[in-house]
Amino acid sequence: MRYRTAILLGCTALAAFAPLSVRAEDEASQDTNTVLQTITVEGAGATADDDSKTIIATTTSSGSKMPTDIMDTPASVSAITAKEIQQRGADSVEQVLQYTPGITTDFYGADDRFDYYKIRGFDAWAYRDGLTLGDPFGGVREEPYAFERVEVLKGANSTVYGVSDPGGSVNYTTKRPKSEKFGEVYATGGSYDHAEVGFDFGDNITEDDTLSYRLTGKLQKSDAEYDYSQDDEQFFMGGLTWRPSDQTSVTLVYDHLDRDGVPGSGGHPIGTDFDTSRFFGEPDFNYRGTDRDTVSLFVDHDFGSGLTFNSNLRYTDSNTDFGYAYIASTPTDGTTIAPRYFYANDATDETLIGDANFGYETSVADVESRTLVGAAFSNSSGSSKSWWDLAPPIDWSNPVYSGAPTSLTLIEDKETDQRTRALYVEQDLTFSEKLIASFGLRNDWIDTEVTDNLTPASSSEGSVSEMTKRVGLTYRFTEQFAAYASYAESVAPPSNGIEPERGEQLEAGIKYRPDEFPALFTAAVYDLTKTNITRTNPATMLEETIGEARVRGIDLEAKAEIAHNISLTAGYSYLVSEIVENGTAGNEGNELSLVPRQTASMWLNYTHEGNGTFGDMTVGLGGRYIGEYFLTDENTSSSGDVVVFDAALSYKIQPNTTFELNVTNLFDEKYVAYGGFGADFYNPGRAVYATLRQTW
């Protein structure tokens, strides 16, 4: 294990720092170099048109709401394009993110209720097209096939999206119609009786390109890796884009997501070593359902003379539920009978959220100016009911299931209405095409009303007004090399009546993008602090602010298409977390739970070109190192460090027909990813999937 870890870390470091020794080729060889294609940007939330053809993103709107060259963005931004998602066969958000430095995933193991990830040691909020989705913990598991790319903005930056955690944010970019004919259909089968079909195609409806459509969908029937599991899904998305002129674009997208699954296996007794297929929940009770409808509207208009208008509007109606029987503790008296609990939750959410802004670009002498002024709003209403009770114990040496409970004790019945309004301004000034000064200022007003149907006397109302700011400097030494430094703030009101959680971050970094081949190499150091951390008091069962935590670290990332047949993704992250203040819990000086000090990853693709008789064959191999981390804030138990390998193979049967094979956790490595409360949860085991894909 030590040797494999050392090799992986060494290769990652070499990949990250390789550009520092790259020398320009002589002028005679310039004609053979591969250069980046021209980028076309449509609106503030748009991305490069070639996200399906390259793993190298050059433009982002995550560092600010203005489309900006990543080299000019004074922040760490990682973009995972549709091509990279397909190459690795990533079919969950956690798999999409797990090769990005600074991010940890899968720390809840076989618990499949939500999308679990942390950025720079803290939970990270999710956004779609720049509009808030909220905390993934307790939210809806997103479908990656719906997105053109996934952008990760690392560090505190509430001036961009509004309320968020200081570790960073994840922004999903919805697939939209294109002004051309394109498409694909595929069929996938594999581990755990997995059967899946999908499609993504579009074309112009009118000959003059003024009206285009796109249809995307996925149907899945599958189990998970443990017994009595289910992982079924129905997803459909349709979009229309109207371009009445070259200056105006209007896009309407509707999507429906329906999931039927099981939240997990119920955990495994501490200290045991069962196969990951073993199930200690209740077959008749463990369930997880999602039914969500979303309508999104995008309007972009260019007035000319540097003035533009962009707006996003989204309506969401979702219903989720889950029931869970799980092991509550592991006996220490030598018996094999484990206590269990039942827990269930039903939740609804209806949200209308929007953002509109005006942008203006101009130049005076050697100074280029870009200004963005906007407003955002969100109206949401939701309900949550929770039930909890003791469940019959289970003998893990000879499990006998008791069936679903006839009734459970209702422990929560709340209705929440929240109204948010925000104003923001962003300013970029570029001096002599070298020095770029970036500023941001935003104020959010949040009014919340919570109705407690169990104890009406505890119903309450509250208002929060929070201003956040950011400032950054970028210096372009050359077209290929830039350095930056930034200060940014975040704010995340946890609940009504509680002091908001706040974050501050100082960051400095360098970025290198060679001319010789498509690539981006970045390095960043940061110092991040979060205050007013919210925890639930076990005596009163009420939330209260109790502490402060600090994280300092470094992120290295490399993405490169070294030649027309070789591409590389590599990353390394080292951080030190510390609980600075923890009230009466006595954890000061400890490290944050579920946060490894070191993570590293590398994915390499090599294509062997066909010769007319045989088609192109691409082989991909990846490795992920997850360092040891504590399972609780008390730091009394920890995981081990581990290396997990993934692999992929694709073969072009015909020019537009491809056979693909993807394997996650190639050597079926097993370890305890989560525990510390009475049961252990293993990491996901090996899974093998084969896909036949037809494109046009």
Essential attributes:
4 helices, mainly beta, Maltoporin, Chain A, 5-stranded mixed β-sheet, 696 residues
Short account of what is shown:
The protein has 696 residues and is mostly beta strands.
Number of discrete helical segments: 4
By DSSP, the count of extended strands is: 35
Shape: globular
Helix fraction, binned, reads under 10%
Uncertain ranges:
1-49
What Rg is obtained from the alpha carbons, in whole angstroms? 25 Å
The figure for the number of domains is 1
CATH architecture: Beta Barrel
Q: What would CATH call the homologous superfamily?
A: TonB-dependent receptor, beta-barrel domain
Distance between the termini: 44 Å
Overall CATH class? Mainly Beta
**Main beta-sheet annotation:** 22 strands, antiparallel, barrel
